[in-house]
Structure formats: structure tokens, C-alpha cells
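Deliverable D4.2, example record:
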Amino acid sequence: MTDMRQSCKGHLNNLKTWRNHVRVRRLCRNFVLPNNKLREFMNRINTCIDEGLDKEKHAKATIKCWQTYVQDMPTGNEKGKYLALDLGGSNFRVLDLELGENKYFTMNQKVYACSKELMTGSGTILFDYIAKCLNEFVNMEGLKSNTVLPLGFTFSFPMSQSGINKGDLVRWTKGFTCEGVVGQDVVQLLTKSINNIPDLKINICAILNDTVGTLMSCAWLNPKTRIGLIIGTGCNCCYLEKVKNIKLYEGDQSKDEMIINLEWGAFGDNNELEDFHTKYDKSVDEISENRGQQIFEKMISGRYLGELLRLVLVEMIENELIFDGTKPSMLDVPQSLTSDVISLIENDPPGTYTATRKFLRGIGVVNPTDGDCMNIRYAAECISRRSAYLVAAGLTVILNRMNEKDVIIGVDGSVYRYHPFYHQLLVDKINELVNSGIKFGIILSEDGSGRGAAILASAVCPLE
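Output generated by the structure prediction step:
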């Protein structure tokens, strides 16, 4: 009789687990994008890129397709000693790079913290602090001399460029709100702060986005590189476009191509992605510091993936689909989960939940069932796969527009680096969507935002 009762209990538990999983799949269904939906997305993003490149439609375009004025690709023969500054988050780096023969390079760097007060104070205070750190680094490296030091400036915020070393900030992102910078040339602002320090002789030769740095760094190693992608805290893409297609460009027409900085994170800001937007995406946007902006980025990038998972888990708990409806207090705290939680969960081999249980213990769940772990993993997979598939669809649009037979995509960013399957998800989905006859490869950029800045500086300010 006891065995029969246990058998019946096990059967009922299995039935409950199955029913709960069916309900979880239904709850997550809007994260699942079949190829016909992805092709609709591709049509829309392609139209928005056309608008960004068009002189009459540019002002209203959500994908701005900013001109970078970068038209010369690396040869691999660049040489010399250059400084690089990489500003794009709560930490920034100053680097000393030496480029040599046979793609040899050496690099020394120091990371400086950028406090919340600096991120939200005045622009003058921010750039004075950066100049002070540059001075400290130059002294530390023994680089001060009568020679002016050439510097490549990676500035990973939306900017409108009117030259290789001129960039007006369009808007702050990533938690920065410094006053007096939007609409101003950040090269001039930093140069003014540098000039206030006696004996600090630095020439900012070039300003670039981190995607451009990634493209340049990978192209230095592989000349087939024609697309740069960052998928980390934020997400952005750049690519080589034919000058004849850049209707805004009124400069030298003698060179065929220019790198275009898409700033595609703002795709959707004019409601182009309304039917792709889940209620969880809407909640993420509502509590963000830039509500109504960077809609695409909030669906795919590392800054927001953990929060999407938290919101899904909370609803699963409230519907008693996991943990018997008992909610850990940590999950009541917005942004308490980060994107590395998703990578951690998906690192578990299928059917085993060692890392998942470790994560759950950390938030106060002591005895989760296999069914709980299975449902949590499924939610994590839906969120990460949607990110990868949307990025893949965007990359496919660029590949199809370029219509080159063999293209390398240089990629950097924490989501790409640390998620166990992101690379393969990109490759598989692009292969399903790309036009026939187009061959592509995806390679990891090694310090694109640093080395790429130095490589661009070397092209603009070659040393004797």
C-alpha cells in the first residue's frame, strides 16, 4: 500500500511538473521568434537604415547611421607608440600601445573608476578628472617629453561626427547624465582640460565608437573584417558602407567606402518594435533612466537581460509555477539579477542543475525541485535566444546589404564572451536568414576599443 501511495504521489508530482512547464512555456511565448517574425524585423531595420542614410529622412530616423569619417582600413603594417583612451562606462582605461612588424604589439594600461558623482555631475569636472588621470598615466609610464603624444579616443556614446577628430555628443547613455556636454564636441572639451595641465602634450588624433575600434582591431589582423559588433552592457554595430549610398555625406568622394556607426540601440524608439515588445520589456523601459529610448538595446543587451529574467521569475512565482509560490525577497529588488546569472544557468549541462542550484541558494531558495530548475533554465534560454536571434537578424541585414562574398564580423562584449552558446546561436541563425552565396565568419576582438583606437590614431597621425 505504501509503495502504491508513493507511486501515485510521484505520478501526481510528474503531472504537476509537466503542467507547470506547459504554463511556463506559454508565459514565455512572446520571447520565441520564428523566422517569419525575424524576417519582418529585418524588413523594418533595413528600412530604418535607409532612412538614417537619407538626407531628408535622417532627422526622424531611429537608426542614425552616423558618419565616422573612417575610410582607410588598416594595412597590418602600422607602427609606433600611441596612447588610447577608452570611455564607455563606470570605469575607463588609459592605454599605452606600441605597434610593430608582423602584427606585433605591446600594451600597458590602467583602469580608473568613474564615480556616480562624476557620471552625474558637470561635464567640466568629468573631463578635468580624465585629463588628470591621463597625466598620471603618462608620468607613470615615463612618456612625458617635448614630443606631442598622439591619442585615439574611444567614446562609446551616440555622437554626430563632422570629422575624424570631431564628435558632438547626441545623448548620454549607460547611466551618464553630465551637464554641458550634449551637443558639444567632446574632443574640444577634453582638449581644453588637457591644455590646463602644464607639460601635458597630447593630440587627440581620432575619436571613435567602440564598434569602430572593434572593426579596426580585427581588420588589422584580418582584412576581410567589414562589420564591428558590441554585445555587452550595451549593443551597437558598425559596417563599411559605399560612399555613394551615404546621402548625407558631402565630403571627398574619391574613396569608395566609409565606416558607418549605426547606433542601432535606438531602433524602436518610434514604436517600430511595438509588436515585438513584451510586457516585461515595457516594465524594463518604465524603470530605466532613459525611458522611451534605446528600445532595441533594452531587449538584447547585458544591462537589461538580468532584469528581464527577474520579472519573468516573479510572475512564475506569483502563478505558483516555481518554489510553490514562495518568493525570495531578493527578487523584489529591481535590477538585482545581472546577465551573468543567465550565462551561469545555461552553463549547466542539459538535465543537470548544479550551477542553477548554487544561484538559487544565493537568493535564499534552499530546496528547489528539478522542475523549478528546468523552468528557470527555460526562461533564461528564451531571453538569451531572443537577444541572439535579433542581433543575428540585424547582422544578416548588413550582410545582405553589403552583398560581399566573404565577410568577417568582429565582435566584442561580455554577453558574447561569456554566454556559453551566444556565438553558435548567431552563426546558426545568420545561416538560416542570409542570402545564398554570402559567406561569413565571426571572430572575437581582442581589446578592440584599445588597440583599435591606437590603430586608427596611427592611420591619422603616422609617426616618422
